[in-house]
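Repro:
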Amino acid sequence: MIKIENLTKRFGSHTALNNFSLTVPKGAIYGLMGLNGAGKTTIIKHLAGLLYQDEGTITIDNQEIINNEPLKERVAIIPDDLYFFRGYGLTQMGTFYKKIYPRWNQPRFEAMISDFGLDAKANIGKFSKGMKKQAAFCLALSSTPDYLILDEPVDGLDPIVRRKLWHYVMDDVADREMTVLISSHNAKEMEDVCNYIGIIAGGRMVFEGDLLEMSTDAPASIEEIFIEKLSQGGDYRA
């Protein structure tokens, strides 16, 4: 379980996150939605252990991520701003990941590279943006993580590739109860793949719900709820 309670983060006079709370149950696919600048990426950076909160708590399986290498070995993150070592190909990146993630699955890595038609020896820096995202998924999912955290993961990908990527993710959720947190502003995509949804605006959680219960109790689509929540208080962007 991912649990964030009363998280506040300030950058000088700017409050990026304001008493923000979120709970992602084990085995869930949770969509965190918000406009650009709402605070989604700041949350991802906290979960990656790159930022330390001013107030509140952040835990994964009741453990803090900061300075916790055994826990980090169970978490894979695909940021919006992808990074690969200069001049490295997928084969070299895979060798590096194998040293970090003890449950590295080499056969899966090779199968995914083949499935997406990527050149394992080519310089990833020369890949297109879409190919880089596919490469990032090959690396992350071959790490066999218990937790997968994604920041705008499928922007710019064609429908066939998106469908293939979500198939891999959902298989891991079904087979291993992998827990997934997805940061996105794409309401339709989130409605298709998630079973929980949260809406962040101005660094605050303004809506959180179970999509199964929502589909029974409320006929509104995620996009309609998203627009409604953002319009209730004007411009929520941080």
